[in-house]
Each structure stands twice: as structure tokens, then as C-alpha cells.
């Protein structure tokens, strides 16, 4: 694949949010649902990475990023990537596991690098590394069910 399309390696992003996410290649992920309450989330089209700027609203009782926020973030990044792998068909999470290896700190630029590990006719198997700079914060794996498209009205 050409150098411009080469995915960035997990851990190659800055530890703090870019001053201008759009200028750094990030687009805001539009969402009118639950994720809008915890966002904004960003997507980098060139490699399919997702990110968010860890803010005070994401903190748990000990002042680091709440595990539920990390799971919400991973679920969205993996789920949208699964839908792309399913040619745009809707997908739903069947199972997701998250291993918390480190902590996300308030002020961190948290990045997920989702990838498809296998796809069948009805399932998409996914994996992601979640980093803050060069620190591995978590890994996530999961299975997404590909739903049948509804007929056009």
C-alpha cells in the first residue's frame, strides 16, 4: 500500500490532543445518540483510527478515565469499523472484551486502532489497541453480528 495509506502504528500518536485535530487529519464523528453525550469522538480516515480528548467529564472517582468510557469508545470504534467491513450493513455487538493494561489520564489523547481479524457471512471479528501516546492503555476484542439490510421503502 502507498505510504500515504499506511496505517499509523499504535503508539505513534501524540499523548496530548492536537491543537487542531482537523489539521492533523482527524474528523469529528457525528452522533446524535448516546455517544454524543461523551464525545466528541474523532476519526482519522487515512488509517481508520479513532480518538477522544480525555476530559474531566470522563473521570472516575480516582481521577483517571472511567473504564465505562473506554468501553464505550472501543465499542464505537470497533462497531463502525465492523460496519465498513460488512459493506455498510448494520452490525450489533455480540461480545466485547476489554483488558485494561494502563490508565487514561485527564488531558490524554486516547487513540484506538481497530482492525478486522476475520469476517464470515454473518459475523465480523475485531481487535483494537487503545493508546495514549506510546502507552498501551487497553486492548479490546469482540464479535459483531451483521444484520440483514431492510428493504428500501
Automatic annotation (TrEMBL):
Family annotation (CDD domains): PaaI_thioesterase
Residues in Thioesterase domain copies: 63-137
A Pfam family the protein falls into: 4HBT
GO MF terms held by the record: acyl-CoA hydrolase activity
Chain positions covered by the region annotation Disordered: 1-23
InterPro entries, alphabetized: Acyl-CoA_thioesterase_PaaI, HotDog_dom_sf, Thioestr_dom
Name by which UniProt lists this protein: PaaI family thioesterase
Organism from which the protein derives: Methylobacterium planeticum
Lineage: Bacteria, Pseudomonadati, Pseudomonadota, Alphaproteobacteria, Hyphomicrobiales
Amino acid at each position: 500500500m502507498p505510504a500515504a495509506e499506511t496505517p499509523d502504528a499504535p503508539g505513534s500518536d501524540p499523548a496530548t490532543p492536537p491543537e487542531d485535530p482537523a489539521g492533523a487529519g482527524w474528523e469529528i464523528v457525528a452522533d446524535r445518540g448516546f455517544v454524543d453525550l461523551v464525545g466528541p469522538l474523532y476519526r482519522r480516515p487515512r488509517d481508520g483510527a479513532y480518538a477522544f480528548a480525555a476530559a474531566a467529564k470522563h473521570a472516575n472517582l480516582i481521577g483517571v478515565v472511567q473504564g465505562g468510557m473506554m468501553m464505550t469508545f472501543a465499542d464505537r470504534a470497533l462497531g463502525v469499523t465492523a460496519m465498513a467491513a460488512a459493506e455498510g450493513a448494520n452490525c450489533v455487538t455480540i461480545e466485547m472484551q476489554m483488558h485494561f493494561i494502563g490508565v487514561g489520564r485527564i488531558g490524554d489523547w486516547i487513540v484506538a486502532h481497530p482492525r478486522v481479524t476475520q469476517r464470515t457471512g454473518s459475523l465480523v471479528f475485531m481487535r483494537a489497541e487503545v493508546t495514549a501516546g506510546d502507552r498501551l492503555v487497553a486492548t479490546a476484542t469482540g464479535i459483531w453480528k451483521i444484520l440483514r439490510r431492510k428493504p428500501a421503502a
